[in-house]
Amino acid sequence: MTLHFVALGLGLAIVNGCCRLPRGLVGRPIVDLASVDYRVVHAKALRPDVRALVETLRAHAEDWRVARDVAVARQ
Question: Is the CB of residue 29 less than 8 Å from the CB of residue 17?
Answer without folding.
Answer: yes
